[in-house]
C-alpha cells in the first residue's frame, strides 16, 4: 500500500476532512482555546470553508495573512500553516503531527483493497511498537530510490524506452500532436518501464495507459467510496482492470527484473502476507505517486522552454557545451550524458527548480495525534488536521521577492533564491520524515527527457504564438496540476541537426 496512499496526505483540506469526518476520529472538542491559532471565520457554518475552497481554489488560503490560523470545517478544525518557521516546527514533530494516519483514513478508499489488508496497513502505523508494514515499505522505498547505481539503472531503462515514443521523422516531415496527451503517454510508458521492467503490464498492454488516467480522473469520486461503480464507473472499472494486471505481474514476479523500488515493495508485501490480489490493488495507488505529479511537471518544463526562443537557445548551448560529446568513431553522432545534467547544467537545473516552485501548488497534510504546543506558541488539538499550502509558501513575495508570482527561469541561479530554497519555504516534495523519496528519480528523469527532446526536436504551436495553458487541479492527490486545456503542436527534427544520430549515456 502505502506507497500507494502516501500521496494522499498531500491533498487539500476537503479530502482530509472528508476521510477524517467519516473515520473513527469523531471525538472532536467543540470549544476553541485562546491558545489555538486564531479562527478564520466563515458566515456559513460547517461547510463554509469547504465551499470557499471549492469556489476559490487555492486562492482561498491567501485570504488570511497570518503565520498560522484555524479553519472550522464540518465538526473539526484544520490549522493552516503559512510561515516557513512553523513548517519547520511541524517537521520536527513527526510522531505527533503525523503523515501516516491519512494512509489509514484514505487507503482503502483509493485502491479498494480488502479489510484484512487494511488491518495489516493500520497495524503499528505510527511505529508505536517498532516497525510495521507502512514503516517497512517507507524505509525500503527511501533506500531503493537513493542516489546511486539503482537510480542510474532506472534512468537507463527509462531512456532505452523513450525512442519508441518519440516521433520517427524524415527531414522536412512534421508530426502534429496534442502536447499534453503526447507527454503523458511517453512518460507513463517510459516511467513504468523503468520501474516495473520488461514484464510491466504497460508493455504488453499500452492501452492501460489510458485506463490509469480514467482512474486518476475519477479519484475524487472514488474516495467517497459510495457505490463506486455507479458514481464513477469508468474509474472503478479501470482500477479493477489495472489491479488484476498487477496481481498477475506480482504472481509471476521475476526478481531479475524490475527496479529496486519494485523489488523492495514486493519483499515487504510478501513478508507481511499481503495477497497478490491486494498487491495488485495497492500498486494502482503507487502509480499515482509515480506519474501524477511527474507528467504535468515535464509538460510545463518543455512548454516554458520551447515558448521562449532565447531561453531555448541558451539551454541548448549549455547542454552542448557541458553534457554532449561527439563519439570518436562517428562524426555525425552525438551522445548526451544524462546522469550528470543536474551538476553540469545550472540553467537547466534552475528551470526545473522554478517549475516546481511555480507549479507545485498543492498542500501537504499532517494529523494531530496528541495535543501539542507548536513552536512553544500555538496549541494544536488532538484529532485535528494541519495543512501547509505550497501555493502560499511558494508565491510569498516576502520570501521570493516582488516577482514571486512570475515564472523566472533563471531565479535559482541567484544566491538569494538558493538561500530561500534551503528553508521550509520550498516544499514541492513535502518535508520531514515523509519527504518524497521519488525526488531524485523525478529530477534525473525530467532533466534527461527534457535535454534529449530539446536537442533533437523543434516544437511549435500548430496555430499562432505559444500560450502556456493555465493549470487546473484535477485530482486531489496531485500537487503539480495538469493544464486545463491541451495545445496542438508541430514536432520536427531540429533545424540544422537533421543528420545527427543521437544516443545517450548514463
Ligand atoms: C514532480 C514529481 C513529484 C512531486 C511534486 C512529488 C511530491 C510529493 C509530496 C509533496 C509528497 C508528500 C510529502 C509530505 O507530505 O511531506 C510525496 C510523497 C511520496 N512520493 Fe513523491 N512526488 C513526485 C514524484 C514521485 C515519484 C516519481 C515517486 C516514485 C518513483 C514518488 C514517490 C513518493 C512516495 C513513496 C511518497 C510517500 C513518502 C512516505 O511514505 O513518507 N514521488 N511526493
UniProtKB/TrEMBL annotation:
One of its GO terms (molecular function) is oxidoreductase activity, acting on paired donors, with incorporation or reduction of molecular oxygen. Keywords: Heme, Iron, Metal-binding. Gene3D superfamilies: Cytochrome P450. Heme binds at residue 436. The keyword Lipid metabolism does not apply. Its cofactor is heme. The keyword Ribonucleoprotein does not apply. Pfam families: p450. InterPro entries: CYP450_monoxygenase_sec-met, Cyt_P450, Cyt_P450_E_grp-IV, Cyt_P450_sf. Belongs to the cytochrome P450 family. This is Cytochrome P450. The lineage of its organism: Eukaryota, Fungi, Dikarya, Ascomycota, Pezizomycotina.
Amino acid at each position: 500500500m502505502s506507497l500507494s496512499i502516501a500521496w494522499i496526505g498531500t491533498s487539500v483540506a476537503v479530502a482530509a476532512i472528508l476521510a477524517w469526518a467519516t473515520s473513527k476520529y469523531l471525538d472532536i472538542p467543540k470549544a476553541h482555546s485562546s491558545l489555538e491559532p486564531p479562527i478564520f471565520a466563515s458566515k456559513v457554518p460547517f461547510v463554509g470553508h469547504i465551499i470557499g475552497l471549492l469556489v476559490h481554489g487555492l486562492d482561498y488560503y491567501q485570504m488570511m495573512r497570518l503565520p498560522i490560523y484555524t479553519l472550522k470545517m464540518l465538526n473539526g478544525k484544520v490549522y493552516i500553516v503559512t510561515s516557513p518557521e512553523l513548517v519547520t516546527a511541524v517537521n520536527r514533530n513527526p510522531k505527533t503531527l503525523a503523515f501516516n494516519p491519512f494512509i489509514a483514513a484514505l487507503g482503502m478508499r483509493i485502491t479498494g483493497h480488502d479489510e484484512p489488508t487494511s488491518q495489516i496497513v493500520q497495524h503499528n502505523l505510527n511505529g508505536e511498537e517498532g516497525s510495521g508494514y507502512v514503516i517497512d515499505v517507507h524505509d525500503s522505498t527511501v533506500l531503493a530510490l537513493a542516489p546511486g547505481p539503482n537510480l542510474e539503472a532506472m534512468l537507463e531503462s527509462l531512456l532505452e524506452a523513450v525512442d519508441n515514443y518519440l516521433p520517427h521523422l524524415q527531414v522536412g516531415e512534421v508530426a502534429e500532436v496534442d502536447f499534453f496527451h503526447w507527454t503523458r503517454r511517453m512518460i507513463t510508458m517510459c516511467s513504468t518501464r523503468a520501474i516495473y521492467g520488461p514484464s510491466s503490464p504497460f508493455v504488453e498492454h499500452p492501452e492501460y495507459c489510458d485506463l490509469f488516467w480514467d482512474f486518476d480522473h475519477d479519484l475524487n469520486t472514488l474516495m467517497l467510496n459510495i457505490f463506486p461503480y455507479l458514481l464513477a464507473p469508468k474509474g472503478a472499472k479501470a482500477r479493477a482492470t489495472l489491479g488484476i494486471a498487477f496481481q498477475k505481474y506480482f504472481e509471476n514476479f521475476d526478481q531479475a527484473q524490475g527496479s529496486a523500488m519494485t523489488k523492495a515493495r514486493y519483499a515487504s508485501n510478501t513478508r507481511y502476507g499481503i495477497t497478490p490480489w491486494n498487491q495488485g490493488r495497492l500498486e494502482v495507488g503507487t502509480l499515482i505517486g509515480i506519474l501524477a505529479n511527474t507528467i504535468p511537471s515535464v509538460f510545463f518544463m518543455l512548454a516554458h522552454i520551447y515558448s521562449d526562443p532565447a531561453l531555448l537557445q541558451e539551454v541548448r548551448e549549455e547542454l552542448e557545451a557541458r553534457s554532449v560529446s561527439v563519439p570518436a568513431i562517428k562524426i555525425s553522432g552525438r551522445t548526451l550524458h544524462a546522469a550528470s545534467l543536474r551538476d553540469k547544467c545550472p540553467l537547466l537545473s534552475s528551470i526545473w527548480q522554478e517549475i516546481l516552485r511555480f507549479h507545485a501548488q498543492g498542500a501537504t497534510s499532517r494529523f494531530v495525534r496528541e495535543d501539542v504546543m507548536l513552536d512553544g506558541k500555538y496549541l494544536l488539538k488532538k484529532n485535528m488536521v494541519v495543512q501547509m499550502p505550497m501555493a502560499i509558501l511558494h508565491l510569498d513575495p516576502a520570501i521570493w521577492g516582488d516577482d514571486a508570482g512570475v515564472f523566472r527561469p533563471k531565479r535559482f541561479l541567484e544566491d538569494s533564491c538558493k538561500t530561500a530554497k534551503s528553508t521550509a519555504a520550498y516544499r514541492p516534495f513535502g518535508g520531514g520524515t515523509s519527504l518524497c523519496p521519488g525526488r531524485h528519480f523525478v529530477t534525473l528523469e525530467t532533466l534527461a527527457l527534457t535535454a534529449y527532446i530539446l536537442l533533437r526536436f523543434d516544437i511549435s504551436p500548430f496555430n499562432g504564438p505559444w500560450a502556456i495553458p493555465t493549470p487546473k487541479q484535477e485530482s486531489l492527490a496531485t500537487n503539480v496540476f495538469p493544464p486545463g486545456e491541451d495545445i496542438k503542436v508541430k514536432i520536427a527534427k531540429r533545424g540544422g541537426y537533421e543528420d545527427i544520430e543521437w544516443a545517450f549515456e548514463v
